[in-house]
């Protein structure tokens, strides 16, 4: 049976923070930390680059604003001219509330779906789920996982993880 | 478990702990998951569920009756075309606002106490907006044509009129519902994964596995997730303020005396938050006891909410006062008449119920003893719920019943169908909330764990597991 990677368990935020810095410094790329709650500064320690999500949300918002306003203009002034109490067909100010709501709607959808898409979720099978110990990653334990696919991965990686103060290191089958 | 520590008192220069009972991370998981994992819910849950389903069945009977017979089964008449349906709509939308305030606005203000209550409050928002959405749909009369409210191509080849605030409302409320649902669900994904990882049965593993989307707590994921959560909070904040402003435009943009005022948007938003917090207190006081969550939803959380009820209650009282002043100061006879008529006219009884419940009784929250009394806050929160329902009744019905020309005045009396559907909406609300309590994580575990770390480490380098309960509970911790 082939090996997907190594899973090292740590007991506290401080330990995983120190370990993450070491793993990143050792040049590993296909690795990750799994923690029950966001540990502040851990993403920096791991060398995670800032996400492009905010830019996607901005694009989503601008699309929503344009679409919302144009929809109202087209529906009430072009496709079915709606003349009510002598008001101009293109009544800009009265279109603001709906434009605003559509902007928010599009931005929020982009934030939500963008987040999960960039994270590659939903992903119902993950080799990590084979590990019984890993179940505590959503409870109270902190894990470092290094994939065998990483070019830096070698027979020494296990000792390396052990040397970082891991309370347990195990192989995860693929 | 030590939950008897009084965390509503703070010595100068210190922060009282938000999490009692000396929990470490796994302690928090155990307490919250116990609600979902216990073989059977407490007996009281069954009793509440039976009552709620009883009320819900009223909806099951009266909705078909209404749809097959027509809105003539309601008490709405010629001057008063907006009766219970619109009152209930505004009431329920308003209740939803507290959930978004707790989850989004308090998040932006870094109020860490929100973590204990945000999940339940957001759930309340979703369910309240579902109840709210019911009413415009049936109020249109021909409910099967309710889709005409949306700009969908139809057989008349017509589009809705975007100059109407009623249409803005359709967009505001449906956006509000969608965004609240996404925000609530996104916050819940890591906690659903926690339940999935502890689940023993095949069915539970499959269902919680499905809804947790394969979450592994990857820090690379958390990084984007936190950004997305912040963005959603920043989007939900102006959204929630816009929603009740737009609801108030339904009235303010018309020319009816008593409705046509510029104070309406802020006044409605304050009232919405006021009523919503009252509903959160009404729900949480029994729920935290029933499910043993006193160490996470502490007296401090409840006291903070009572303070917000007091503040917003004063704002609402101020708005009532200023409305009267402006009616007099405007020199407009019809405005003056409308306001005197509200207090002294045929609906004076409703006006004084409103003032008593919204302005007078919440003043008791100035006393710490009342703010920290479970029974006291429960009773006062129900008063606020009653008062805020009557506020909407007073605004809507008095202005319509006695407008410009006395010959076209009338008096509105609800029918059995009106009252029954209103009670039924409570049944729907409580049923959904009870299901939520039992099957979903009641407290945002991952967020509370983040706060716990700060609480322990503001006090010195402690390891949660090695810390004795007493020390954690009395820790002079960073809030």
Sheet/helix structural class of chain B? mainly alpha
Strand tally of chain B: 0
The backbone outline of chain B, from C-alpha atoms, is globular
Q: What does the overall shape of chain A look like?
A: elongated
Task: Spell the H/E element sequence of chain B.
Answer: HHHHHHHHHHHHHHHH
Helix content of chain B: 55-70%
What share of residues of chain A is helical?
A: 40-55%
Mean pLDDT level of chain B: 88
Uncertain ranges of chain A: none
Low-pLDDT sequence parts of chain B: 459-479
- Mind describing the biggest β-sheet of chain A? 4 strands, antiparallel
Q: How much strand content do the residues of chain A show?
A: 5-15%
N- to C-terminal distance of chain A: 7 Å
Structure description:
The complex is a heterodimer of chains A (174) and B (479). Chain A contains five helices and four strands, in the order βαβαααβαβ. In chain A, helix 3 packs antiparallel against helix 4. In chain A, strands 2-3-1-4 form a four-stranded antiparallel sheet, with helices on one face. The mean pLDDT of chain A is 89. With 174 residues, chain A is α+β, with helices and mostly antiparallel strands. By secondary structure, chain B is mainly alpha-helical. The C terminus of chain B is likely disordered. Chains A and B meet through helix 1, strand 2, helix 2, helix 3 and helix 4 of A and helix 1, helix 5, helix 7 and helix 15 of B.
Quick structural gist:
The complex is a heterodimer of chains A (174) and B (479). Chain A is an alpha+beta fold and 174 residues long.
